[in-house]
Write a structure and sequence with these properties.
205 residues, alpha/beta
């Protein structure tokens, strides 16, 4: 199931030129290895949110080789992004890209279980979920107490290629639906139809 009309997606992508050669290199790296990333529109959204919110601490659960983390870091003015991935090779590649972009001073790199490591941090201003989709709800429940008072939760792939609607019995789709409903009930949330669906949420006031 298509989330966005391909012609519309192509048009929007055409308006999203980027001058950072490292971003282009990372996109080529992802494409050559069929490595899933949030994409340029998603990256620009993360940059915009970070530039406006000016967080002190961003914690990523499931950083891959650092594409989304790089967008966060580019927009930080006085803070850091913690990149966490269970594969050491991914984190090492992220470090390489950050070094090329002169952004290592804005980042912390961790290898291991993202949910477990994420609980070490307090007053998280932005919590970004891009780990195994079946763990989204577990991650939020275990880390929501670690958010700052106005902490923002961002989650990628929450529409799961439309399978939350078209294949409701699919295990991942079912768990993502449970996550989306939990976020709607307990947070003020919105799902943007950017690529595979990006959820934004803050505590209800």
């Amino acid at each position: 199931m298509l989330i966005l009309n391909p012609d519309v997606e192509k048009y929007v992508q055409g308006l999203s030129e980027v001058e950072d050669s490292i971003i282009l290199e990372m996109e080529e790296y992802a494409q050559s290895r069929d490595f899933p990333i949030i994409g340029r529109q998603g990256g620009r959204l993360l940059y915009l949110i970070t530039a406006v919110k000016k967080p002190r601490l961003v914690v990523e659960l499931g950083s891959g080789f650092g594409y989304s983390g790089y967008w966060f870091a580019k927009a930080l003015t006085d803070g850091k992004v913690v990149l966490i991935d269970y594969q050491e090779k991914n984190i090492k590649k992220a470090q390489e890209f950050f070094q090329k972009g002169n952004l290592t001073d804005r980042a912390e790199f961790r290898v291991g279980d993202a949910v477990q490591i994420g609980q070490e941090y307090r007053n998280i201003d932005i919590l970004f979920l891009d780990l195994e989709k079946v763990r989204y709800l577990e991650a939020v429940k275990k880390l929501e107490k670690n958010l700052s008072d106005d902490g923002l939760i961002i989650a990628d792939n929450v529409l799961f290629q439309g399978k939350v609607i078209s294949q409701p019995e699919n295990k991942k789709a079912k768990l993502l639906d449970q996550f989306n409903r939990y976020m709607s009930e307990h947070y003020f949330s919105v799902i943007l139809p950017v690529r595979d669906g990006i959820l934004l949420a803050v505590r209800k006031t």
